[in-house]
Sequence to fold (378 residues):
Amino acid sequence: MKRTPAPRTIPILTLLIAVSLLAVPALADGGAPSTIPHYFYGQIYNVDGSNAPAGSIIVASVAGNPFGMTTVTTAGQYGVNRTDGDAVKFAVWDPAMSPDDTIVFYIDGVRATESAIYESGGFTNLTLTASAALPKKQPGESTTRPVNATAGQPVTVDGGGASVNLTTKGDCQGETLVFTLFTQPPDDQAIPPGNDNIGRFAEITSSITNDNIQKVIVTLHYTDSDVAGIDENSIRVYWWSTANSTWVQLPGGVDTAANIAWGETDHFSTFALLGVTPQPAPTQRGGGGGSSGGVFITPTSNVTPTITGEETPTPVNATETSAATPAVTGGPTTATGAQATQGEPGAEAPGDLPMTAIAIVAGIVVIAAAGFLLLRQR
Fold:
């Protein structure tokens, strides 16, 4: 005789199936990122209105964090339009970003006059104009770092090939340090006689004003090949004095085992590692003797600085120190407003696919179990 399912069994099985069907899409969507990249493209100019050269590095910074970087491939243009196919787009995004974050742009370490507000999925035509003259030489690297410091407490900020140990007079929150590294003097500054260029230069700028800086210890890195033929113990950090148009040696020292040199100052500037080529020993001449040789430069004593403190993480919702400037299109003197439209979805965050698969499998198992129980009642 055919058995009829118990009256209470059918509603329970129906409920299980309904819950599983609703849970699958909900779980599958649970691993998706809450935001997606904001894409930018447009024209890019030097402060004098000339095209920024190919090779210029653009960094998009949010509260000092570098959340996007691209290199100019065609002078005067960056990024691509949505109609340009599979060309590389300039995407600005990080999981820590929040809607309405202010995005500040830097061109070869020089801040752009324009900024933008982050829109998840935005696709914005934004003209970028350097707020000061771009370096004459193109950098090899450029990045930004967040700074949060307590008055009188040193904080170390690492910019890759250069780092600083900074002590401020007052508290600083949400400030930005910009590190831009070169292999040649950025603006063709002449190397003084008697010194050797080892190919390590750094422009370091900050949103912190000089009157709030108590002390800065600048550390630059080098390689063994950089110092071939140079007296490594003579390497010191120099800064460029624009007032005197000369390199000025900073008090500091060198660690030849770690391949680093450091110098102490009270401001940010353009810095260089310079050394001295070993000079031949003086030769004695007949008839009273004498000596001959080149220029000898006595470096400052090799004093090891005391470096303490850790960099404080920047809050996720921190903003840069200035408000956003409306996006513009056209030439550097034309302000016609930004064109922001919804862009293509960004890539799913790592781990999305496994979460989706697990959710689907779980749903199938629940449905199969419900079907099995239903068959047993027949």
